[in-house]
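HUMAN:
Could you generate one sequence with tokenized structure?
ASSISTANT:
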Amino acid sequence: MTEISLSADQIANDVFLLKKPHAVVNLHRKQQVQVYAEQLNLGDARIDQPNIMLDISARPSLLIRSDRMQLPPYQVRHPKMMLRYQAQAQHAMLSFDAEVKAAQDETWGTFHLNCQMPDQAMAQPWRCDDGLYHDLRSNIPFQLRLTPTWKDQDHSGPAGKGLDLVFAVQNATFSDASGLHAGDKLTGEVKLSAHQQADGWHWQGVLEWQQGELIWQPFYFAEGNKRFEVRGRYQPPYVDIDQATLALQGVGTLHSQGRLNLTTQAFDFLKVDAKDVNFNGVYQAFIQPLIPNSAFGHLNVSGSADWSFEAKGLQPLKFHLTIADASVEDQSGKFGFQHFNADIPWDYDHPKQIAMGYASGHVLKIPLGETRWQAEVNRFSITAPRLQLPILDGGLDFQDISAAWINQSMVWHVKMDLQPISMSSFSQALDWPLMRGQISGTIPLVTYANHSLNMLGEMQFKLFNGLVGMSDLTIDEPLGAVPRLHANFSIRDIDLGEITRTFNFGSITGKLEGDIQHLRLQNWKPVSMNAFVRTADGPFDKKISQRAVENITALGGEGTAAALQRTFLRFFKAFGYEKIGLSCELRGDVCKMGGVDTVPGGFVIVKGKGAPSVNVNGYTEYVSWKDVLGRMQRVTDSNSKIIIQ
């Protein structure tokens, strides 16, 4: 006889269950027992077809190998467990090695754990000092302290399993395949206590994140120094969070409840609320990451806020944000609001009324007056019958406001009346020369869809006793990084006397008209247009002062001024003219200049009439837009010259 075989239906105790074991004792190798079995269960883990080698020599050991281990939601292959008794230390060491991955991952990682077993395995602490999980994107060294708190049935209640655990990581790094979830140099500790009861495992824990960085798209947290306390229950496949408290430095304390489905790895429901938190901290931690490329993605904010949020799966159900006495300032200076207050509830199933307002604000350099606004929010749409926005000494009266979030994009429309705003206050606000007149108008409809704003109808500005009209306005990506504008402008019956007095230009009498067609701005800079301004025909008094002639012609115009001074014309303060005009066909950065007539090698800007008459000609046909701007400030180019007849 060379071996002895023993079989049983199963062998079980509180720790393991071995199904259909078959032991073989090789009589030539008396100190080793080979055990084959159909299945080995250790808690929730199941090892199929385990191969068990028991060494009963002076240095006893137990080695368990298999091809696969079932440990949902993880997949485990090639598990290897070794139990060795160390006589010198008088305790046993248990090591576990395997290849592990989450069910949805493609990459396998290696897992290693080496623990010192206590004499009383079910009552004394286990100490595991050199745990490590490692794969292509992760390296997580960890330590583990584990104390079983098994409870036998007694007069106080039934038997139950329990566990106290301390899990610590130091300088851990990880990321997923998409890079949307990652941590770097994470150091912290988790303390968890769990006990099995009739309705599942009841547990509570504390996470102390001491240092490191964590990105959980779209959120980013750095510098550690955060504490998270949580308690709940576990009944497969659900983890119920009865109460969780997260203390974030610079934000405040957040409380939450939820149910996580480990099979789908999604929350069946999640509630988060925070009271009197730092609005700047909430904005930087939770709001800004969600809207980084919007108009509200780069703000300086202050104030306090109450915030609550409910979701099911990935679907938000409820939201409520209350902001008290906050300030909001766009970092590029585009807009800002002071003493901003808001009450913004939102419910996926029921319409809600929202209210917000501010004591003062600005858009660009234009100041805004105190504003209060109410609207109705119905799921992903918002409507309001009216919003009055005081601006300077007038205002904007918005009517029939409607906006909706459709297909991951915002669409809206609004009607608008521009109540008269004096040009004097408007020009002062923009640091322009003091102008007279008013801006007013009515816009039948403004729409926004597919990141494009369109104005139907014409908006008119009453300026210098005339009218400036704007039509066909389209703005693509108005709040984006590179907005693009298209519009047409018409200029009619502008009083030249008013303009020249406003700009201290000299004096020109008559009327001005013109058109700016197909104006295109890119990032608010002109890149294309066909512009022409000229004096209007009609029975007007048409006079141009010597100073205005000098301003039109001069600039470089020593010659022009000198020419006037050298002739008898210097005794005249004004001259008659027939036409004055200037055109620009802008393409890119080059403007093709023109006037009211042509002359060999140039064009006529001022065509005189009567005797004596004054003509002003231009001879540089193509100039850069930068030069045009400079010449608009000086009114004419340096190559202009005067011809006296």
Notes: Residues 555-562, 636-645 have pLDDT under 50 and may be disordered. The CA atoms of residues 85 and 92 lie 4 Å apart. The longest strand covers residues 181-197. DSSP finds six helices and 48 strands in the chain.
